[in-house]
Amino acid sequence: MQSISVTELSNLIHSDTKLIIIDVRSVQEFEKAHLPNARNVPLPELEEELKVWKGDTKMITVCTKGGGRSSKAASLLRDHGFSSAFLEGGTIAWLELQSA
Predict the structure, then answer these.
(1) In whole angstroms, what is the distance from residue 11 CA to residue 89 CA?
(2) Is the entire prediction scored with pTM above 0.85?
């Protein structure tokens, strides 16, 4: 399973890479805290939503701790031809990095 660290994601955000950050948590979880510019697409809705995205964009999936829902979402995206990875440590790790 392909994953990405919060440091690697931070570097990607500041590069010219075409990137979409997909938060696969519920709307309620997303409203509490999320990464900047993340799109909230709850996991059950992801397969329908991915039909509008282009395959040349790097997709990073995020959930609370990383590895559960975000890992499933990254696998689904790869199954549909997208370059994707999930964020190690999820939103919690991202927020910790930002507050350090």
Answers:
(1) 16
(2) yes
